C-alpha cells in the first residue's frame, strides 16, 4: 500500500459518494420529510463553498503536508454523511425545523472540509511523480474520478432503487475504513512537496499567472455542467421518451461513458507524456464531433456514436489542463495553491454550465446543442492560444 494508491482511493470515494447523493436527492427529501427544492438548494450552497475552501485547503497542504489535510477532508465528508443518514432515520421525530438546521450544518461541513480531498489528492499524486511525467499522474487522478462517477449509475441499474438506506450505511463503513488507512499512511515517508519558493505571493498574482489554464478549466466544466443538466432533456425530446425511460437511458449512457473514459485514459498513460503531444487536440476534436452528432442525431445508434466521441474528449481534456497547472511558474507557486485555483475554476464552471442550461430551457433563445458546440469552439480557441504560448508554459 503506497500513498499514490491511497490518494486514488480518496478520489474514488469522494466522487462516488458525490454522484450517489445527487442520485438519492428525492429519497433523502422523502425520508427527511422536507421539500425536494429545499434539499436541492442546500446541497447547491454546500457545493458552491468549494469556490473558497478548495483553494484554502490546497494551499494549506503546501505548508502542513498533504496527508494531514486529506484526513481533515475525509473527516468532514464522513461526519457530513453520518448527519445525512441520521436525518433519514429520525427526521420525522425531530421536526422539520431541526432537520433543516442539521441539513444545513451537514452541507456546510461538506463544503468547507470535504472540498480538500480532490485538489490535495491531485497535488499528492504529482508529488509522487518524480520518475514519471505529471501527465501520467493527472491521468491517474482523472481515472479515479471517472471510476467513482461510474458507481452511481451502476447502483441505479443494479439495485433498481432498493435498499437506499443500506447503501448509505455501507458508504459510512467504508469511510471509516478509509480514514483508518489514511491515519496509517501518516507513518509512510511523504514525498517532497512541490511548494515553490514564495508562499506569500498574492492570490491575484497567482491567478494572473494561471489565467489560461483557469479559463480552459472554466470552459470545460461549463460544458460538463450543461451536458449533465440537459442530457436527459435532450434524450426525452429527441426520442419522445417518458421521464423514467430517459433517466434509465441516461444511467446507461453515463456508465458506458465512464468505461470509455477510463479506457481512453489507460491508453493515454502509455502514449502521452505531456499535453503538447496531441492529447489536447484529440480531446477538443472529439468533443466537437460528439457535440455536433448530439445536435444532429435522429437514431439511438447516432446517440451512442456521439457518446463515444464525447467520452474520449471528456477523458483527455482535464488531465491536460491539470498537467499544465503543474508547470506554471513552479519556482514561485506552490502546487497545492495551483490545484486549489483549478478546483475553484471547476466550481465556477459547473455553476455557469448549470445556469446556462436552466436559462436555455426557460427562455429557449438558443438550443442546448448549440451551447455545447459554442463552448467547444471557445475551448479550441483557448487551446490554440496555449499551444502558441507553450514556450512560456513549460512542458511537464
How would you describe what is shown here?
The model has no long low-confidence stretch (mean pLDDT 82). The chain has 16 helices and no strands. With 396 residues, the chain is mainly alpha-helical. It has helices at 3-23, 25-32, 36-48, 50-64, 66-94, 96-113, 117-127, 134-159, 164-185, 203-209, 211-239, 243-271, 279-296, 300-327, 335-363, 368-388.
Bin the strand percentage.
under 5%
Structural class by secondary-structure content? mainly alpha
The biggest beta sheet is recorded as: none
Secondary-structure element pattern, one letter each: HHHHHHHHHHHHHHHH
What is the 3D form? Answer: globular
The number of helical elements comes to: 16
Amino acid at each position: 500500500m503506497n500513498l499514490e494508491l491511497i490518494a486514488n482511493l480518496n478520489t474514488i470515494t469522494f466522487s462516488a459518494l458525490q454522484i450517489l447523493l445527487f442520485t438519492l436527492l428525492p429519497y433523502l427529501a422523502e425520508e427527511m420529510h422536507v421539500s425536494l427544492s429545499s434539499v436541492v438548494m442546500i446541497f447547491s450552497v454546500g457545493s458552491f463553498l468549494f469556490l473558497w475552501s478548495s483553494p484554502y485547503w490546497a494551499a494549506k497542504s503546501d505548508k502542513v503536508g498533504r496527508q494531514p489535510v486529506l484526513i481533515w477532508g475525509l473527516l468532514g465528508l464522513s461526519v457530513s454523511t453520518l448527519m445525512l443518514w441520521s436525518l433519514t432515520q429520525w427526521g420525522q421525530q425531530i421536526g422539520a425545523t431541526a432537520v433543516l438546521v442539521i441539513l444545513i450544518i451537514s452541507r456546510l461541513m461538506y463544503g468547507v472540509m470535504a472540498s480538500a480531498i480532490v485538489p490535495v489528492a491531485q497535488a499528492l499524486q504529482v508529488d509522487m511523480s518524480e520518475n514519471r511525467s505529471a501527465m501520467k499522474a493527472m491521468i491517474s487522478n482523472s481515472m479515479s474520478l471517472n471510476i467513482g462517477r461510474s458507481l452511481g449509475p451502476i447502483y441505479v441499474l443494479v439495485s433498481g432503487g432498493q435498499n437506499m438506506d443500506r447503501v448509505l450505511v455501507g458508504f459510512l463503513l467504508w469511510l471509516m475504513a478509509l480514514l483508518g488507512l489514511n491515519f496509517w499512511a501518516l507513518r509512510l515517508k511523504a514525498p517532497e512537496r512541490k511548494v515553490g519558493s514564495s508562499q506569500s505571493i498574492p492570490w491575484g498574482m497567482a491567478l494572473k499567472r494561471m489565467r489560461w489554464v483557469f479559463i480552459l478549466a472554466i470552459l470545460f466544466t461549463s460544458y460538463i455542467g450543461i451536458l449533465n443538466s440537459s442530457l436527459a432533456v435532450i434524450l426525452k425530446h429527441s426520442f419522445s421518451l417518458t421521464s423514467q425511460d430517459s433517466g434509465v437511458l441516461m444511467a446507461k449512457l453515463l456508465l458506458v461513458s465512464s468505461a470509455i473514459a477510463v479506457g481512453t485514459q489507460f491508453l493515454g498513460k502509455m502514449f502521452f507524456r505531456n499535453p503538447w503531444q496531441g492529447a489536447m487536440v484529440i480531446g477538443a476534436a472529439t468533443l466537437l464531433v460528439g457535440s455536433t452528432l448530439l445536435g444532429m442525431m435522429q437514431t439511438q445508434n447516432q446517440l451512442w456514436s456521439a457518446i463515444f466521441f464525447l467520452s474520449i474528449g471528456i477523458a483527455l481534456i482535464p488531465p491536460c489542463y491539470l498537467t499544465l497547472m503543474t508547470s506554471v511558474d513552479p519556482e514561485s507557486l506552490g502546487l497545492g495553491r495551483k490545484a486549489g485555483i483549478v478546483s475553484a475554476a471547476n466550481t465556477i464552471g459547473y455553476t455557469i454550465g448549470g445556469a446556462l442550461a436552466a436559462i436555455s430551457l426557460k427562455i429557449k433563445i438558443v438550443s442546448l446543442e448549440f451551447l455545447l458546440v459554442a463552448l467547444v469552439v471557445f475551448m479550441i480557441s483557448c487551446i490554440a492560444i496555449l499551444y502558441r504560448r507553450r514556450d512560456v508554459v513549460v512542458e511537464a
